[in-house]
Amino acid sequence: MEINELTEKVIGLAIEIHRHLGPGLLESAYQECLVYELKKNYLYVEKEVILPITYKEITLE
């Protein structure tokens, strides 16, 4: 799958979830639904992966 196809798929699923649930829920609710939809569409998903970030001379874990 090309990056543009993947992007279109993910955004489409996110919009579908938002239309179904509406605004105002916690981010975690939308996250769980998005993970569900991505897996249902045979996409590999990892959530809450720890990625170190470097900001100027400090590294945040």
User: Runs with pLDDT <50, length 5+?
Assistant: none
Count every helix, treating DSSP H or I runs of 4 or more residues as helices: 2
Major beta sheet, strand line-up:
1-2
Q: Which radius of gyration do the C-alpha atoms yield? A: 15 Å
The SS-based structural class is mainly alpha
State the total count of DSSP E strands: 2
User: Which percent range describes the beta-strand content?
Assistant: 5-15%
Distance between the termini: 31 Å
What does the model show?
With 61 residues, the chain is mostly helical. The chain has helices at 3-21, 27-40; strands at 53-55, 58-60. A two-stranded antiparallel ribbon has the order 1-2. A hairpin with a 2-residue loop joins strand 1 (53-55) and strand 2 (58-60). It is extended and about 40 Å long. The mean pLDDT is 95.
Please summarize what this structure is.
This protein has 61 residues and is mainly alpha-helical. It has two helices and two strands; from the N terminus they run H-H-E-E.
Task: Name a few traits of the molecule.
mainly alpha, single chain, two-stranded antiparallel ribbon, 2 strands, 54% helix, 61 residues, 10% strand
